[in-house]
Amino acid sequence: MALLTVDNLTVGYDSATGMTRAVDDVSFTIESGTSLGFVGESGCGKTTIGMALMGLLPDNARILHGNIILDDQNLIKISQEDFREIRGRKIAMIFQAAMNALNPVVRVGDQVAEMITTHQTAVSPVEISVKIEELFDLVGIPGDRINDYPHQYSGGMKQRAIIAMALACNPRLIIADEPTTALDVVVQDQILKEIIKIQNLLDTGFVFISHDIAVVARVCEKICVMYDGKIVETGTREEVFQAPVHPYTRQLLGSYLTLDNCNNIKVPYINSRLGQKGWEHGCALAPLCDNPMDKCDRLCPGWRQLSPTHGVRCFKKSTI
Amino acid sequence: MKKQQNAIIELADISKIYYQKSQLFHTGAGDVVALKDINLTINKGEIFGLVGQSGSGKTTAGRLLVKLENPTRGEIYLKGAPVSGLKGRELKEYRKQVQMIFQDPYQSLNPHLSIAETVMEPLIVHGAGTRESRRQKVLDTLETTGLVPATDFYDRYPHRLSGGQRQRVAIARAIVLEPEFIVADEPSSMLDATIAIQLFQVLLNIRERLGMTFLFITHNLAAAKYLCDRIAVIQNGVIVETGHTRDVIDHPSHPYTKTLIASQPSFDICPIL
């Protein structure tokens, strides 16, 4: 039984021009102790998925369709009060801007303690302080820094404190939305190592959202590549990164600069109107494709399973 | 030396110290040394990379070069002429020669100004051209940065542009006066990889066509390797290694450079632990 099952999730935003679909017919599952990564460019809907899982969608967003089932409980159907019981205790989130996610006038240790007392009323002060020491040790903050204020922390330490907070109530599922985006490469590397260590130690499910494919490749066993609200390719990290099938995945990988590929980087085709095409009339990616077929402009490609784990939304049998 | 004759920008023994203000007796404790004895020469047509972590002083160096701040010690030379003490018309002329592209395109554009007004403002401030020629200059510059067709963008406001398009507008604003030298402070760090690589193409294209010289400030060594002719690695305000980009990255000699290289993301998908 999967820890989390998401079926045909569709989320729309009310806008002046009608309903805009930010997440369109997205399905995936996560087992305990495994991690799933969402990659895609800004605006592809990956953060909206995270917010839907947390029950924190803004007021102008609506879940139009689909189910989110966590441990036999359908999160679409429960009230806001019940959701408050689940948030923090069963699902926790690591937010993007660690710099702004901490209260500047409360000591960091007390902020983590608040997380525990809010969700677990029957814990003694001694138990709490033991738990906090454990958590800070786990995320690699020295014990003598527990009573510091956030401004005394560096960016990396703030992000560690946010991770400690997310882990405070032993959640079943952790959603990390761009947890390293504001950090420089050296600190990013340290935080990713910390996250991998925690994944190995705990039996928690991870949803990892990032626009940085190399970050997702490091921490996730399974990957979903998104474009304009839809998953266009999914598979294990070996399948997606070593044998990508969808032209969009190949473009994402081909345009990512590493130290080894500076000479054969592929500059993606520039098309400022691309974002407006949508999925109603054929494949949204047809204008970006190197070699589209005639029907790509008329028909929306369906899902094609290449292996039990590897699937792709593209008509082409092979693009190699 | 022959190399010196090509120098556009020279930093000679530059130090920048931020003093702690609220002390009764100044003890020096709490002072922050942002830059310490920096010596750099950037040649005509070069893209020079300044690479380091957050807090290493690389942005401070950029701010000194555009004279948003002044160095505590040392001297900056533009084409051999010292920059400190410039005032009035001379300072204005310097600003015309040295422009900056900031990191965050969501904060560096004025939301109340249209794209045309944003890019035209430097021309008006410096009294360049006539009304008609300015309009044409703005359109040409927008095209140069890849905002094509330029007339589509001319009357738009920043909120209707994506991050990548905004950054192109910021580049257009920086190059419209055809400066000698541009400081680009992490111009791609807020952008997706696909957009960043397109932006790099724009910078390379500008260098090719207009012969401008760049200081490219970044924490991303791969971006520096792609774009820069030479780089300097900076740690805690001190330049620890400098040289041709490939030499530094392929054969790093300083341990800090090695740390930066090891931290660089790659598709090495084997778990580390």
From TrEMBL, chain A:
GO terms for biological process: peptide transport. SUPFAM superfamilies: P-loop containing nucleoside triphosphate hydrolases. It is found in: Cell inner membrane. It is a peripheral membrane protein. InterPro entries: AAA+_ATPase (IPR003593), ABC_Ni/Peptide_Import (IPR050388), ABC_transporter-like_ATP-bd (IPR003439), ABC_transporter-like_CS (IPR017871), Oligopep_ABC_C (IPR013563), P-loop_NTPase (IPR027417). Residues 4-253 form the ABC transporter domain. It holds the Pfam family ABC_tran. The keyword Transport applies. One of its GO terms (molecular function) is ATP hydrolysis activity. GO terms for cellular component: plasma membrane. Belongs to the ABC transporter superfamily. This is Peptide/nickel transport system ATP-binding protein. It comes from Desulfocicer vacuolatum DSM 3385.
From TrEMBL, chain B:
Residues 9-261 form the ABC transporter domain. One of its GO terms (molecular function) is ATP binding. Keywords: ATP-binding, Nucleotide-binding, Transport. SUPFAM superfamilies: P-loop containing nucleoside triphosphate hydrolases. SMART domains: AAA. InterPro entries: AAA+_ATPase (IPR003593), ABC_transp_ATP-bind (IPR050319), ABC_transporter-like_ATP-bd (IPR003439), ABC_transporter-like_CS (IPR017871), Oligopep_ABC_C (IPR013563), P-loop_NTPase (IPR027417). This is Peptide/nickel transport system ATP-binding protein. It comes from Desulfocicer vacuolatum DSM 3385. The lineage of its organism: Bacteria, Pseudomonadati, Thermodesulfobacteriota, Desulfobacteria, Desulfobacterales.
